[in-house]
Amino acid sequence: MRTLVHHPLSPFARKVRVVLAEKRLEVELEVEKPWERRDEFLALNPAGELPVLIEDDGATVAEHAAICSYLEEAYPHAPTLLGREVLLRAEVRRLAAWFDVKFNQEVTENLVGEKLIKRFSGSGTPHAQAIRAGLANIHYHLDYIAYLADRRKWLAGNEFSLADIAAAAHLSTIDYLGDVPWDQHPEAKDWYMRIKCRPSFRPLLGDHLPGAPPPKHYADLDF
After folding, report:
1. 131 within domain boundaries
2. DSSP letter, residue 167
3. Is 222 part of any domain?
4. In terms of pTM, does the model score above 0.90?
5. 3 state SS of 99
6. Residue 156 lies in a domain
7. 53, 2 contact by CB (below 8 A)
8. Entry's CDD domains (predicted)?
9. Same domain, residue pair 138 and 164
């Protein structure tokens, strides 16, 4: 059985989970705590980062972007999440990188990293300055989502794509904390509501960490 080594609040693992579901590829989930740096896990990915995909035949693919590219190429019969036109594919990749790099550095790491990952890994106390930066930065990104959603059906164009998945994967981890100011960004909220209603995304909303439950609205498809 295909296996994805993941952690419930890793946005990169969440992205790959949605991609697998959109492509209708069955997978078993294996939880890993990357901060433990187990030898068995480092043998799968020496970088010590999640997620890692293990195929039925034992073939291993590490790093979220590499996994998504692999799934596009290995399963061409499944729905494409990059688009079929060359310019659309470039825009999808640009926006996916925007959220996986820029949003991750400016928001995810400052909120999820400081508030939850440090707590569970025992790697120190949260930095108040970093948290304040994350709470301030998220407005800029929600404004950008609203700008894109106002001009296109989905973030990259008329088709649901990896760009939407990457953005929603990161936002879902922030929403687990209750730190997304949805009421101040109704256009972004409407876009995210459409994502939450997709069957591929709903399993993420069922993830709960012991001792750190999400807010009540987290799994509510209508907020």
Report:
1. yes
2. H
3. no
4. yes
5. helix
6. yes
7. yes
8. GST_C_family
9. yes
